[in-house]
Amino acid sequence: MKAVLVQPPFVQLNSPYPAIHYLEAFLRGRGHETEAFDHSIALYRRIFSRQGLSTLFTALKARLSASGGEEGKLRLAPAARIEVERYLSYESLYLEWIEPLMHFLGKGDAAFAHRLAQAVELPQGARSAALLESEGGRISSDQARVLATCMLEDLGDLIGQVLDPQFGTVRYGERIAASRGDFAEIVAALNSSYLLESFYRPFLSDFWQAAPVRGADLILISIPFPGSLLGALACATAARAALSPKARILFGGGYVSTELRSLSDGGIFDFCDYLCFDAGYGSLCSILEREGLEAGLSSPAGGLYRSMYRTAAGRIAVSGFPEAERARPVAGRELREWLECPDRERYARMEDEALAGTFPDYRGLKLDDYLGFVDSANPMHRLWSDAPWLKYHLAHGCYWRRCSFCDTELDYVAHFLPGRLESLMSAADAAARSTGRHGIHFVDEAMPMAALLGYAVANRQRAASGRTPFSFWGNMRFDASWTPDRCEFLAASGLVAVSGGIEIATERGLAMTDKGFTLAGLVRCLVALKRSGILVHAYLIYGFPGQGAADIIDSAELCRQLFAAGLVDSAFWHRFVLTRHSPLYRDWKRGRLPGLKPSDSPRPFADNDLSFEGEDQFDGFDGPLVEALAAWMAGLELDRPAAAWFAAPGTAPVPESSVPPDRVETLIAQAESEFDSAGHRDGSTLHWVAGAPLVRDPSTLVWAYRGGLETLRQRPEAVKALCDTILALSRRPEGMTRAEFLGMAGGAGSDGPPIVAAPIGAAPDRRRDEEAPSEAQGQVLAQFFGRGLVSI
Fold first, then answer.
1. Number of Cβ atoms within 10 Å of the Cβ of 771
2. Fewest beta carbons within 10 Å, which of 29, 144, 315, 405?
3. What DSSP element (H or E) covers 246?
């Protein structure tokens, strides 16, 4: 069987989105011929090329002229027209610069950086002009990628303002597709799209005629976000026209699994044959068997696993879902036909096996096609756009899965299953060899500590064998599993950054969202991360049901203090969205939240996001919160209380924050005191993360740690034993148990009783009872903690 997997536009442009590569690895592992294609980066490069810009400028001039008749003529406000005329005047320069710009942001031509820095005349829109003005008209070559990013974003602004209002650099038609109840509106948007009509459809016409995809039996199109829906429909339309009628088109991904579970509008099946839900592996296997595309048991009609399709009678077959799904609100329930899956357990086992053991090796991937935008000077924020990352998961689902606002009832959160470390490392090793890249972004809901520590040990073993270790980052929970020792060990093993949800930074807010930690616990975790030099990004929520202005101000004030204390490097405010698959909605249905009044009328198409009574009261917080956060991330206005950002003339007054101005500093002091007074570490395995020890003289041991030189004076017999033990530990990526370390460090020779390491001048202790030597040895061991020795 020949399968073609497509990521339609628009998603991220710095790295491949991983879904199609996971499915590619899965199908290849079952013996099928597969090809994966990222149309997101391909289309972006098609638009932002010399030919693409020429087409855009021609269309722009036509819109501004009367040649199309008064009805089609674009009317702009005077200021906007001046801006557009500036672009038109720069047309020839944009055509000259565009392909070098794209090449520079892809492969990084150092010579071009100097040209950007020294150019007297280059095409400027509002963003690039503002950057140059802020730098006195000239930039350094180190800032060239920032300017190049601004120049492309200027062109993106022009497209969105004049030619296609749905365009965004990494999204398209997102507001149209998100929880839109009427599929006819989606089709209308598809048919009126300038970019899809002028650029993507011609691209697809060529793509589906090319040799690598001709004769495909199966087309899998991933729709991870609402902004990918219109591109997926256009892609499927072209595939249907070009390929054999026997070829089957499948849609899956996060958007499908989240938004279309209550689908009763069958219009989407004019574009595809099947919808695959949740992880997709079980659904895909059942469809392959049903269609005769894979050897094995033949699935009976209606026997699909977590799939939907349209029957000959025009009804939507909802097949193989858990029984609990029957009770969901559905508009037009009579248009759906509920089907059981006799092989549900078999497909569930197949899916779990795939989730645990399938990882992409990214073979054939051309990472130079991707673009390293620099849309922020913030070092943490840049991780999302600055360089290509190989994307993997440590586990499927979330080990906490209780947050009240999250879609905890859906499989991608609720079904927690750790991956197999050996499979992950094998795939990542193959990807590193083929791409030359050694950066991994773990896309877990929250990296589980046990799996993360196991990965860190494997990464250290990789380094010990002479191979380049990976740098990595990912999402986490600010919980008690992140101890100072573990953070230091992970940082020494390649962890560079974490992102995690604080949501509402008040005790009441943390309780409302059921985060599972307190403010003191949050700060304790952040202090541990910062001690180790790990960058931190925080997700924040406002507009939560029951949250008042005072609580939002308090949350913002505490966040300001976190930034001022250096505990958080970047953050993002999310406006709360109520969803049907959250504990909050479940509690409302059970009558536990009488004050919450959602608009609960089910819709026939996308039906996850719900509006609720009173949510417009939070509109006034949108601008000030974003503005304040932008300043804090830039290191500005950190002494200005959060409430001051809302004191604009003509606006309603907001309450002063009730958070003491030294609240975070007080919590930091408590955390530091707890850490520094800890007499022992709870972990069972010891690791060495400092420089190799040296014997300076018979009584002195020295080693480098964090740029300084640590010194320990002991009896001569102990110094040699300690040096040998630490050297042995430093060469063992898997670490040592505490008992093994003490056993090695306690003996000066093999033919006598243990000599306990003790300060100079202390009497030697040669007692044979084990209690006293063990205690004394433990005291010596404690002297290494915080100076290179960690216990995990």
1. 8
2. 29
3. none
3-state secondary structure of 503: strand
Q: How far apart are CA 177 and CA 753, in angstroms?
A: 75
Q: Nearest 10 degrees: CA dihedral of 742, 748, 750, 751?
A: -130
CA distances from 133 to 120, 139, 146, 197 (A): 13, 10, 14, 37
What are the structure tokens assigned to 46, written together?
A: 């098609």
Cα 736 to Cα 686: distance, rounded to the nearest angstrom: 5
Q: What is the dihedral of CA 562, 565, 570, 576, to 10 degrees?
A: 10
Whether the CB-CB separation of 460 and 469 falls below 8 Å is answered with: yes
Q: In this structure, are residues 149 and 169 in contact, taking their beta carbons and an 8 Å threshold? A: no
Rounded Cα distance, 268 and 17, in Å: 23
pLDDT digits (tens, 9 = 90+) for 30-77: 999 999 999 999 999 999 999 999 999 999 998 888 544 555 567 788
Q: Which residues contact 718 (CB under 8 A, 6 or more apart)?
A: 745, 748, 755, 756, 757, 758, 780
Q: pLDDT per residue over 104-149, tens digit each?
A: 999 878 899 999 999 888 999 999 999 999 999 889 999 999 999 9
Of 476, 471, 490, the closest CA to residue 522 belongs to 476
Instruction: Tell which residue, 535, 587, 591, has the closest CA to residue 566.
Output: 535
The yes-or-no verdict on residue 431 having pLDDT over 50 is yes
CA distance 548 to 605: 33
Whether residue 668 contacts residue 527, with contact meaning beta carbons closer than 8 Å, is answered with yes
Cis amide leading into 10 (omega within 30): yes
Q: What share of the chain is helix, strand, coil (3-state, %, to 5)?
A: 45, 15, 40
- How do beta strands 700-705 and 708-713 pair? antiparallel
Residue 216 to residue 786: CA distance in whole angstroms = 59
Q: Mean pLDDT for the chain?
A: 90
Strands 316-319 and 336-339: what pairing?
parallel
Write the CB contacts of 574 (distance below 8 Å, at least 6 apart in sequence): 539, 540, 541, 542
| 570-575 and 535-542 beta bridge pairing | parallel
pLDDT tens, position by position, 178-232: 656 789 999 999 999 999 999 999 999 999 999 889 999 999 999 999 999 999 9
87 touches 56 (CB < 8 A): no
Give the DSSP H or E segment for 651: none
Q: Tokens 């963003």: give the residue.
A: 127
User: Is 163's pLDDT higher than 70?
Assistant: yes
Taking the CA atoms of 186, 188, 190 and 196 in sequence, report the sign of the dihedral they define: negative
Residue 417: CB atoms within 10 A of its CB come to 14
Show the tokens assigned to 132: 């140059």
| Whether residue 678 has pLDDT greater than 60 | yes
Q: CA–CA separation, 359 vs 420, rounded Å?
A: 9
Residues 6+ apart with CB under 8 A from 295: none
Tell me the Cα Rg of the chain: 29
Question: Over the range 337-348, which residues count as b (16 or more CB within 10 Å of their CB) and which as e?
Answer: eebebebbeebb
- The partner residues of 712 in beta bridges, in order of sequence, read 701
Q: Measured between alpha carbons, how far is residue 41 from residues 101, 223, 366, 689 in Å?
A: 15, 15, 11, 40
The reported pTM is 0.93
For residue 436, the one-letter residue type is G
For residues 455 and 407, the answer to whether their CB atoms sit within 8 Å is: no
Higher pLDDT, 275 or 368: 275
CA distance 33 to 2: 5
Instruction: Check residue 775 and give its pLDDT.
Output: 59
Residue 364 · residue 413 · CB < 8 Å? no
Dihedral angle, C-alpha 204, 206, 211, 212, nearest 10 °:
-30
Cα→Cα distances 683→258, 376, 486, 520, 559, Å:
39, 38, 9, 22, 31
**pLDDT (0 to 100) of residue 778:** 64
